[in-house]
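Exercise 7 asks you to align residues with tokens for two separate proteins.
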Amino acid sequence: MTQIDEDGQERSGPRFRLVSAIWAMTAAFGVYFCMYGFRKPFTAAAFAEGTVWGIGEKTVLVTAQVLGYTLSKIVGIRLVAEMPPSRRALAILVLVGAAELALLGFAVAPAPLHVVCLFLNGLPLGMVFGMVLGFLEGRRVTEALTAGLCTSFILADGLTKSAGTWLLDQGVSERWMPALAGMMFVPPLLLFVGMLRRIPAPDRHDLALRGERIPMDRQRRGELVRRYGLGLAALVAVYLLITIARSIRADFAPELWRGLGVTVAPETFARSESLVALGVLVANGLSILIVDNRLAFFTALGVALLGALIMVLALAGLHGAWMGGFSFMVLMGLGLYLPYVAVHTTIFERLIAMTQERGNLGFLMYIADSVGYLGYAALMVGRAFFPHGSDFVAFYARASWLVAVLSCAGLAATWLSFRREGTGYRVARTGG
């Protein structure tokens, strides 16, 4: 819907676009940052004294939440793809409200029922990203907006853990801490969702360059997958590997820091993730400067490859003992988040624009996310067999070497599959 001022003129000048972009980025960043306040603070607790079904309590709790979050991603393939724009804001509030109720249940439910509450906490939260993303896609500045959105989950991962650690330091119990942390984020969440509702729709120039983004029914979703199945499979495989390594780093950050010999304080998470977020925001956000959709798509694949090479550098530094623990965690974070965020910001966005498909970004993202979290959930089921202490760091390093090498191969396969798209070898598909 075009924005019209009081004089009947289209409000699409540079100043209006800049203000709209800042508003949209702030709103999206704020909503998703607050969502993390209902998801991640519990991972700051050690739960070291208990076991559930003979397995460490934290392992079971993380696995339960990941399983709920994974199921949410699978449901989101359809729900997010078909969601009308007018219902997205209300859906966000309903989803987050359900997650907070589950955290209150976690605080009071006896073991092992509290594990079910963490599953129910993850179940609605996995769809929030797609709802927020729907407000940002299909614009000339989508990459910058989505980079800001993705920066929120990099920063929030550390800062919400810091909030959880602070509550624990104040004497709040490990069971009540997650619910109280969530309550802290309710007022800003309401503010930012209100801002989301007022984001202007893409203007006619956005539509000309990026195409119209519409809800996708089952037939349209199936046609898109059939046309690009091989390339999407290679890309999703890379995303699966990166998601697993990224999620282990995020959910077991305290264990990794301690295994590296770094004293964990509330500000440790915030410092490391702030540096990672800055690098990722710059690297992925600058893709808005590339007007040509095909060039931007393949440049984003190059950024993803750069991330895999940074991982190799960090792992070599750890193996050769010439890199400290803090530097290793920052570089690993940067190496993992560069490809992870490139998929969110640019690769799928420009794929739709390059191929002139009529659909939406949420569908492709939720295919990738559902596969990524299924892989991570499977890994967490076997978490009881992971080593501990410094051995856990060695295990993570070995797994990360494998992820880096296979990611390079998968990105090469993606490039080969899409190398002719947008070059005139295929007829543009604009119908339907």
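Second protein for Exercise 7:
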Amino acid sequence: MPKRLFAPNRISQLDPLENGCLELDCAEPIQSVVHPRYLVARTEQGSVAGEKFRSLAIRLRNFQKRQRLKKLLITSSVKGEGKSVISANLAVTLAQAQRTLLIDCDLHQSGLREVLGSHGLAGIAEWWRQSGSVHSFLRRMDELPLWYLPAGQASEPPMEILQSQRFSDMLHHISKWFDWVVLDSPPLVPVADSAVLAVHVDATLLVVRQFTTPKPLLKEALKTENLKLLGIVANEWQGTEQSYYSHYYKGYVPSQKVTPQDNDQLSDSLGAQA
């Protein structure tokens, strides 16, 4: 039997929303079609990558002590930067001490399905097409106080859902039951979804991939209104699906790529220490 990774007395106390918490405890476990990929925060906790995620989680908790910080948007400038891997591993790491919700807000082409091996799960899109509660679409990861709300299969334009008052009310309501809400969203430059989602969160982490992120598009992404940028996360993960949003940039050949030195300069100039 796997070792239990948390105990009830380690989970921080939430507002007394007993009915909601009971519903969370009854959520079905995540049913992985394949073994989760790239989830090093759970499968390789002693690795260098696992330590990096623990360090990031500690910094975020320190920020949380000083300012309002619960809903965290994870995005990137373009495809291929590993934002879904960062989102999933950060959520797993935060959940080792606090009640955490991971929301797949990429209604175009989910990256979390690959990371979690959770293809075919109904989620936000199916909730939108019915009048019931979102609770029945929540899934729980075994042995952690970590819940997952999939994107589902959208037949409507994603912006119709994300810009709605109903989505805003749902996010506000469900967030009350958690210490952290991590939203994995599409890249900033191809679509406007993340700019809309940024209005609903307390802060944003922008993922860049060293030697891959095009500087001009990164600069364009940083101009996004209401981004609430908390920090830049440098990522060197090598397994991103090449087809992800590729139709937006056919024929585009970037002349400049982000380097480690560029990331240091951006972090200094933006005060991004996450």
